[in-house]
Amino acid sequence: MSEQFSSQLLERAVDAFSGLPGVGRKTALRLVLFLLKQDSEIVKTFAQSILDFRNNVKFCKTCHNLSDTDECEICGNPKRDRRKICVVENVQDVLAIENTQQYQGLYHVLGGIISPMEGVGPSDLEINSLVERVKAGDVDEVILALSPTMEGDTTNFYISRRLEGQNIALTTIARGVSIGDTLEYADEVTLGRSIVNRVAFKEQNH
């Protein structure tokens, strides 16, 4: 049985919060009532931060990570090793790897992985731009750091075929991350070791 709200404004707010992933209606109601108790300026700042993010956030022109400017801080950092590109599925994976403090190269965010069941093909991902970055030179290693799932492995294989003939080392993270796990939920020590102990892609698949 659905809730009987005494206020349509309350119901609309609960509907909005419950539309977020992992937020049920009971949690949404608790969050809305919490905000109701806060000072109006705090709520205004909260709402404005979401609007600012939605309207002004950009994707880095080089690696497709989220950024406040045309180029993200990682790509613009002269201290990063520009000879290495770590290929990840999404922004969360960049954050997960950065938290390990074990990698100092650049990234390339695909924006997903190949998944025929969900209608996601190679053309839906930032694979062509990765190939162009490698062809431009100055890259000697591409690290495939996709989650060790069937879809991740399929994407790894497709990228490896697209990069055939390029004078680079193609590596993948070690299987310290369990099969079927996603990188964003791996603990920092395990993920860090997987990056440090990466192996040649062909070796991983033999």
What does this structure look like?
The structure is a single chain. The protein has 206 residues and is α/β, with parallel strands linked by helices. It folds into two domains: 8-56, RecR Domain 1 (Helicase, Ruva Protein, domain 3); 71-204, Dna Topoisomerase Vi A Subunit, Chain: A, domain 2 (3-Layer(aba) Sandwich). The chain has eight helices and seven strands. The protein has helices at 8-18, 25-37, 40-56, 91-100, 128-135, 150-162, 188-196, 201-204, and strands at residues 58-59, 66-67, 81-88, 105-109, 141-144, 169-172, 199-200. A five-stranded mixed β-sheet has the order 4-3-5-6-7. α6 links the parallel β5 (141-144) and β6 (169-172). α1 packs across α2 and α4 crosses α7 (188-196). The N and C termini lie far apart (55 Å). The mean pLDDT is 88.
Q: Quick one: biggest sheet? A: 5 strands, mixed
Q: Write down the overall mean pLDDT.
A: 88
Distance between the termini: 55 Å
Counting DSSP E segments of at least 2 residues, the number of strands comes to 7
Count the DSSP helices: 8
Widest sheet: strand ordering: 4-3-5-6-7
Give helix and strand order, one letter per element, not per position.
HHHEEEHEHEHEHEH
- Proportion of residues in helical segments: 40-55%
Unreliable spans: none
Q: Which architecture of the largest domain would the CATH scheme give at its second level?
A: 3-Layer(aba) Sandwich
Could you say what the CATH topology of the largest domain is called? Dna Topoisomerase Vi A Subunit, Chain: A, domain 2
For the record, the CATH class of the largest domain is Alpha Beta
Please, how many domains? 2
Overall, the morphology is elongated
Q: Approximately how much beta-strand content do the residues carry?
A: 5-15%
Global Rg: 21 Å
Class per helix and strand makeup: alpha/beta
